[in-house]
Amino acid sequence: MSAQSTAPSTPDVTKDFSDLEISSTVTTPAATRPSSPIPAALPPSPLASGKHKICVIGSGSWGSALAKIAAENAWKRNDEFHSEVRMWVREKIVNGKPLTHIINRTHLNSRYLPDIKLPKNLVATPHLKDVVKDATLIVFVVPHQFLHTVLGELRKPGVLHPQARAISAIKGVEVNGTDIETFASLIEGKVGTPCSALSGANIALEVAMGQFCETTIGCPSHEDSLLWSAVFHAPTFRVNAVEDVNGVSLGGALKNIVALAAGFVDGLGLGGNTKAAILRIGLSEMTEFCLEFFEGSQRETFSNESAGIADLITTCYGGRNRKCAEEFAKTGQPFDVIEKKLLNGQKLQGTATAEEVHNFLRARKRTHAYPLFEKVYQISYEGLPPKALVQGL
Ligand SMILES: NC(=O)c1ccc[n+]([C@@H]2O[C@H](COP(=O)([O-])OP(=O)(O)OC[C@H]3O[C@@H](n4cnc5c(N)ncnc54)[C@H](O)[C@@H]3O)[C@@H](O)[C@H]2O)c1
Ligand SMILES: O=P(O)(O)OC[C@H](O)CO
């Protein structure tokens, strides 16, 4: 696979599919569907239908936004994908009704992505085994603290298609003592599917609203890059594929630590110069951390890709980690209280990553090499005052 391959162009998916009468078993003949431009030939599906089947495990704000894109592309490229895209919804009663029923009847995820019309071929499904049945392309996008529970279900014999491929859009890392692992690697190890990574400057609501943005996919093979580009690329969601799975994964994880620092800066009322300094130092620590602990990762993933510099910028100016850290610096309330107060059920990821990275660096005796990461941990967990953030950087 070329180091930098750009997805085949796909038609404008910003069209509204809401008028489509799509049942859960879609039978509309392809002839009435908007035809795709000449698609790159995708690797063949192992299913008798000759089509790939996509499913999405996760239905939070990002899970729903990504599932929307995947379902729209599956509909457009119905000659290559089953139209139905199942999305795992951890069942919850919302206003007296199961969330899956609300989504399948109104095509709105009123709990996690309100006001965004979801395509009718996106089917909310409460049971994991039904979601992944016959799926050849599995998107993992649950908040990272819940991934192990999900994998425990999926690794049971016969649950996943033996030739399924996966991609992780989860931002975080798995740490055990002196070992650190990306979620793409963890998924591959637990369920045996080749796993790519997707990460970029992708605040979910802006993506779901069709505002132009980019993302990076890190793929272990050329076939994976073709498949995942076809699943996700859209004129307002530009996919760039690279081979650096680790770099793409670490970019999305580590930027959340720096975003906390950016929030502290905002909470302290400091200006753009200080935030710019924090971003520069943060990008440097992100890059050096990945190069030090993940052999083969690429510096360019951080300097040139959406998964690096762009995601850092968007998160440090508009993300939830920044927002909660600002509140922390202003009020001193614990992060779990702030998460419940500000995020309306969504999950903060940066504080867990700050702790996991601290524990890993301490085990490796390398905390001194990453002063910004260490300061964020000490402020978040050890009572260091936020104003100490910039001291000694
Ligand atoms: N929200 C964004 O803007 C955004 C953008 C890019 C990447 N991400 C990343 O995507 C991943 C998923 O985040 P999100 O925004 O979709 O979720 P979210 O933050 O909206 O969290 C809500 C989700 O958590 C699930 N959940 C809550 N408790 C659970 C439990 N006990 N077990 C299993 N699931 C539970 C809910 O069912 C819901 O699907 C995260 O790693 C996040 O960093 C988020
Ligand atoms: O809201 P955050 O801080 O979790 O960031 C959201 C996305 O990861 C930005 O790319």
From TrEMBL:
Active site residues per record: K255 (proton acceptor)
Catalytic activity: sn-glycerol 3-phosphate + NAD(+) = dihydroxyacetone phosphate + NADH + H(+)
The entry's keywords: NAD, Oxidoreductase
EC number(s) on file: 1.1.1.8
Extent of Polar residues compositional bias: 1-12, 21-30
Record-linked Gene3D superfamilies: N-(1-d-carboxylethyl)-l-norvaline Dehydrogenase, domain 2, NAD(P)-binding Rossmann-like Domain
Domain annotation Glycerol-3-phosphate dehydrogenase NAD-dependent C-terminal: ranges: 244-390
Domain of life per record: Eukaryota
Domain Glycerol-3-phosphate dehydrogenase NAD-dependent N-terminal: 53-222
GO biological process per UniProt: carbohydrate metabolic process; glycerol-3-phosphate catabolic process
Record GO cellular component, one term: nucleus
Coiled-coil stretches noted in the UniProt entry, renumbered to this chain: none
Binding-site residues for NAD(+), renumbered to this chain: G58, S59, G60, S61, W62, G63, F146, A204, R320, K347, Q349
Molecular function terms from GO: glycerol-3-phosphate dehydrogenase (NAD+) activity; NAD binding; protein homodimerization activity
Keyword Repeat: no
Similarity comment text for this entry: Belongs to the NAD-dependent glycerol-3-phosphate dehydrogenase family.
Name recorded for this polypeptide: Glycerol-3-phosphate dehydrogenase [NAD(+)]
